[in-house]
Amino acid sequence: MPDPPEPGDRETTFVGATLEALAFEMKRNPAIFVMGEGIGQRGGNFGTTLGLYEEHGATRLCDTPICERGFVGLGCGAAMTGSRPVIDFMFIDFINDAFGEIVNQVAKMQYMSSGRLKMPILLRGCIGVGHSAATHHSGNYASIYSHIPGIRVVLPSTPYDAKGLFHHALRCDDPVLFLEHRELMATRSCVPETDYEIPFGQARVAREGTDATVVALSLMVHHTLAAAEKLAGEGQSIEVIDPRTVSPLDFDTILGSVAKTGRLLVVDEAFGPCGFASEIAARVADEGFDELDAPVRRLNGAHAPVPYSPTLEQAVVPGADTIEAAIRALLEE
Amino acid sequence: MEEGTFQEWLKADGERVEAGDMLFVLEGDKASQEVESFDAGYLRLPPDVPQPGDAVVVGQRLAFLADEDDLEPWKDSPQPGAVPDRKTPLGQAPGPVTAQTKPVRSGKSISPRALRLATELDVDWDNIEGTGRGGRIREQDIRAAAALGQAEAPGTSLTGKTEPLSATRKAIARQMVIGTNLTAPVTLHREVDATALVALRRQFKQACDDKKTVPTYNDILIRLVAEALKSHPRLNSQWREEGIFVPEQIHIAFAVDTPTGLLAPVVSDADRLSIDQLADQTKALAQQARAGQLEAGQMRDGTFTVSNLGGLGVDSFTPVINPPQCAVLGVGRIRKKVVWHGEQAVGRDRLNLSLTFDHRIVDGAPAARFLDDLAGQIEQPPEWLTH
Which structural domain, as residue segments, surrounds residue B8? Predict the structure, then answer.
């Protein structure tokens, strides 16, 4: 796989970047088709399939009724038999209606067939708290699905990464859960027009530093960078790592950074218990114990349903201020 | 004890070992000790077995006790954790040695990273105040301490060789640094009239036949110190986090200059010995110390130290507390001096005493009263000394 190109100077949005990748791959690979609610003529609730219906028609952009378990099962069978379905959940919360299909069939089929069957299915949808979307439309499920062997779990934080990872997802033979943060959809950054792949399991060092390491996922990468920028004004040098994929996880980059800084904070807006941050903390305590100059810290969303009220909503997830406070506390340890 | 120097195996690779057999010799802080096996089995020496002279730390795995069916040759490099469970790791020093000179480290916390760095940079973190939460010592504290210790090192034009630190040297260094920095030392100086002491010593000499040991000045002083401590138990006490510990015993340590460094063997229950018994004991202990034959137990549990540099022409000095003890008495040389006796100038034998005590445990006035009592006993030696 060639190295991904320089970002260049053309800007596009997060959604625009994945749409470019999807359009490119659909043109290139006739086995790809999209299923979901409102992804046909409507072009997707977030514009994830905008313009593709006109080009490829209803067979490859297949609107579905509200029956996640049914169309995930359909996608599973299609992937096993040579197609490459992209299932667009709009809000990823509703993937849970298809949990059994995913865990018991999609994730296990390659193993159960001794590799004779492939499972090239892309499951995508938006995650995250914001816009008063309330409790049914604010979930973060990366930890739950990365618990399951056999599924790739991808959480890009920039349009550039989103495009490269989306291309890679549509060229790999494994089930991929592609999680796009609601609050990142409209963000812009420089993205090459050409197609390129970013491999899974390669973290990105979003900011280099020497005093503490912060591992952050998805939207939290941006909040953490803002906090790090503020602390830099006070002479604190914070390293920010964006794993980009949590399964597989590039633990070496995290451990290497902790070896440099001795301090680690993991920021994830999902619930804390049994989560991504706990996993990182446990592995660092295990494999990097002698590197630690302070206890490993986690900063998570509140372990509670997400409220509708905008004020309360902001209170249950980490923001730049709470991340900054958590970094300060870590530096004082 | 945290670290010792491995000396030799007392069993061969593959040899049968019974519980209670002596396995190896370890030079600990100030003493060599044979370490016994707690289990039975066959001694297996792995490829990374320590060589004589290697430093080994408490808790380090030195070798294995294997079953009979596990005597095949070693593979090239045994993986940690790949060792069968039935082999028992060896090498933990038995309790008494561990307990003996464990430095005062209660309540100190240090990050794993700082601990590793302290080992790498050879920084003694006992005396570092941590800047982390709750006083936890962290990386920056170790780096600061190391920078302080090496402040003069960069750009030096000095040439020379570095003598490796022996276990004894390290132990002395640790004790002295703790005695100086982790206590609140104050030294009181007092000149006493030793004319009667000199007369007493002459009397002992004349009374002695060849078989008996003549008590030295130091013996007499140790005996008088032990007696005075009975009335001043605070000077015989120890600082502990939970309170001031007052031992019921009076065990006097005395400093002996040896080829490997300063050692302080202990005369147990010095307050209950006759002067002759005491003289016999100090003589034997000093001989053992100089021959490097003291056992750890003979240097343990001193409650007060007497250090005498009079024989080397020193008038007075400020001795360093030997932790966890409260106090140490420094003894200078006896000199003939002209002193005023009323209106008359007379020649008298004079002696300087220097008492360093831990001000956390005892205040200046009570310490001075102890010194005063001792001075009185020296100036007019009690009759029981000679009986």
Answer: 3-100
| A56, A136, A137, A167: the active-site residue | A137
Identify the bridge partners of residue B263 per DSSP, sorted by sequence position: B256
With 90 as the cut, is the pLDDT of residue A98 above it?
yes
DSSP at A47: S
* A46 and A82 housed in the same domain: yes
Nearest CA in chain A to B114: A293
Contacts of B112 in chain A (CB under 8 A): 289-293
Alpha-carbon distance of B293 to B151, in angstroms, equals: 39
Q: Is residue B53 part of a domain?
A: yes
Residues of A in contact with B116 (CB under 8 A): 290
A131 counts as catalytic? no
Domain boundary among B55, B79, B100: B100
Of A262, A292, A332, the CB nearest to B133: A332
Residue A264 belongs to a domain with what CATH number?
3.40.50.920
Q: Find chain B residues with C-beta within 8 A of A289's C-beta.
A: 112
CATH for B37: 2.40.50.100
| ipTM for the whole complex | 0.76
Mean model confidence pLDDT for chain B: 85
Sheet of strand A122-127: strand arrangement: A61-63, A32-36, A84-91, A122-127, A176-181, A152-154, A245-247
Nearest CA in chain A to B112: A290
Q: Tell me the pLDDT tens digit for each residue of B37-65.
A: 888 888 988 888 888 888 888 888 888 88
Q: Across-strand partners of B346?
A: B339
| Domain containing residue A140 | 11-190
Nearest to B239 by CA among B178, B165, B155: B178
Smallest CA–CA separation between A299 and chain B, in Å? 19
**Residue of A210, A293, A332 to mutate, interface with B, max B Cβ within 10 Å:** A293
- Write down which residue in A167, A190, A213 finishes a domain: A190
Structural domain includes residue B143? no
Q: Do B111 and A291 touch (CB under 8 A)?
A: no
Question: In chain B, what residues touch A291 (CB-CB under 8 Å)?
Answer: 112-113
A146 and A258 in a single domain? The answer is no
Q: Is B378 buried (19+), middle (13-18) or exposed (0-12) by CB count in 10 A?
A: buried
Residues of chain B that touch chain A, judged by Cβ-Cβ distance less than 8 Å: 111-116, 132-133, 136, 138-139
The number of folded domains in chain B is 2
Residues B16-27: tens digit of each pLDDT: 899 888 899 888
Calculate mean pLDDT across residues A221-242.
97
B237-258 pLDDT, tens digit each: 999 888 999 999 999 999 999 8
pTM of the model: 0.56
Radius of gyration over every alpha carbon of chain B, rounded to an integer in angstroms: 25
